[in-house]
């Protein structure tokens, strides 16, 4: 029961051309696109457990994952 649990990651990346947040992840089957970061996070919390159960066979445990947000911004410098 003291088996080491694998940790996963989910990244939210901003696509300025499409104006959407999209996912990069090592969780098999996890694909997220959303217009807002809040919507992305809501979908992530619904889909991560589903994808872990269906595609990894993980059940009845708490699974840690890292969540990172990346958005490139520009500022005008005079």
What does this structure look like?
- The chain contains one helix and four strands.
- The chain is of the alpha+beta class.
- The chain has a single domain, classed as 2-Layer Sandwich (TTHA1013/TTHA0281-like).
- The longest helix has 20 residues, at 37-56.
Overall CATH architecture = 2-Layer Sandwich
Estimate what percentage of residues fall within beta strands.
Answer: 25-35%
The rounded distance between the terminal residues' Cα atoms is: 60 Å
Total helices: the number is: 1
Mean pLDDT: 93
CA gyration radius, whole angstroms: 15 Å
Contiguous low-pLDDT stretches (5 residues minimum) are none
Strands in their spatial order, largest beta sheet: 3-2-1-4
- Number of strand segments: 4
Helicity level, as a percent range?
A: 25-40%
User: What is the chain-wise order of helices and strands?
Assistant: EEEHE
Q: Quick one: CATH superfamily?
A: TTHA1013-like
């Amino acid at each position: 029961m003291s088996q080491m649990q694998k940790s996963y990651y989910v990244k939210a990346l901003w696509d300025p051309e499409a104006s959407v947040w999209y996912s990069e992840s090592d969780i098999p089957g996890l694909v997220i696109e959303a217009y807002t970061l809040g919507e992305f996070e809501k979908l992530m919390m619904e889909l991560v457990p589903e994808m872990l159960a269906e595609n990894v066979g993980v059940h009845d445990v708490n699974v840690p994952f890292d969540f990172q947000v990346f958005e490139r911004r520009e500022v005008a410098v005079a």
